TrEMBL record:
InterPro entries membership: L-lactate/malate_DH, Lactate/malate_DH_C, Lactate/malate_DH_N, Lactate_DH/Glyco_Ohase_4_C, Malate_DH_type1, NAD(P)-bd_dom_sf
Organism per entry: Pachysolen tannophilus NRRL Y-2460
Pfam families named in the record: Ldh_1_C, Ldh_1_N
One annotated GO molecular function: L-malate dehydrogenase (NAD+) activity
Lactate/malate dehydrogenase N-terminal domain residues: 19-162
Entry keyword NAD: yes
Annotated catalytic residues: H194
Protein name, per record: malate dehydrogenase
Amino acid sequence: MFSRITRRQFSTTPSTAYKTVVLGAAGGIGQPLSLLMKLNHKVTQLSLYDLRNAPGVAADLSHIPTNSVVKGFTPDNEGLAGALKDADVVLIPAGVPRKPGMTRDDLFKTNASIVRDLAKAIADNAPKAAVLVISNPVNSTVPIVAEVFKSKGVYNPKKLFGVTTLDVLRASRFTSEVLGTNPVQEKVTVVGGHSGITIVPLLSQTKKKDFDPEVRDALTHRIQFGGDEVVQAKQGAGSATLSMAQAGARFANSVLSGLAGETDVVEPTYVDSPLFKSEGIDFFSSKVTLGTEGVKEVHGLGEISSYEQDLINKAKETLIKNIQKGVTFVKENP
Ligand SMILES: NC(=O)C1=CN([C@@H]2O[C@H](COP(=O)(O)OP(=O)(O)OC[C@H]3O[C@@H](n4cnc5c(N)ncnc54)[C@H](O)[C@@H]3O)[C@@H](O)[C@H]2O)C=CC1
Ligand SMILES: O=C([O-])CC(=O)C(=O)O
């Protein structure tokens, strides 16, 4: 167990000192994500939890001379309660990944109960933490966490995030490949959700703005189905792990920056959103300003093209079903 003294000791060097927890830390995403969190100077305590092997991953990372103490937990070794105590940020990459031929929704039957049970433990042990959900299907697992938190009276919509950053990374990369530009400077806002047609890149808001329709269609499709490229290339051995770790670490760093009081921290993320609530869509991804309490402001979509409006209309039809599926699951399987 980390003591408060340890936390204070380390908080003197950086201006911030946060405990970050990775649930599913020994997995394909969990290991590189834990490495990247070990390299983040805002993190002073890093707790790694998995059904097995988390203490080994923690021992390995603990030799890296950065400003954090790492500890591994399993069900037999202080368990979730030990891992989660005093957490500021909890990342959840626990659950099964896709194989070729599967949709993210096909993962629901296995991952829904995993995420529900982890959410119960977070509600009991770290109800004030920011919770970053990576486990698929994100469109449904985020509503699952929200329902569990509501049932336990600890739901804070400002602290629950579906991580859609990988869509943003892909959009930058793929757009730069088409335009021959520097991917680092190619910023693309991606809105909606995190699966197939619910992923909507707003290419009309990029510097290029006007794409040839054929190029635009192909680029949009590649961004929407980028995950499938990796699933197919891995031939049954899983889905994106390394690019996802980078995406998760970038988003976690933004959340930590917001908590630390940095200004103008803006990332697209799937949150409890006012944008389409009147249509029964409680969760939607758009640009969000992150602050000391989590979500500070959910941005509107801005000016979009009629092509993008059509994509959003289609995305909403799927999203409403995905969200309802998560809500119903928790009501029927509390
Ligand atoms: N949001 C996104 O953009 C992305 C999400 N994903 C999703 O992330 C999830 C994890 O993917 P991978 O790391 O590749 O899978 P993996 O199978 O390599 O690792 C998953 C880990 O979760 C652990 N786990 C399972 N049940 C658990 C529980 N109850 N408590 C704690 N740990 C548990 C497993 O032991 C394993 O170590 C999948 O659902 C995948 O679809 C993957 C890529 C991108
Ligand atoms: O495709 C998958 O199943 C994993 C994922 O969410 C992604 O890579 O975007």
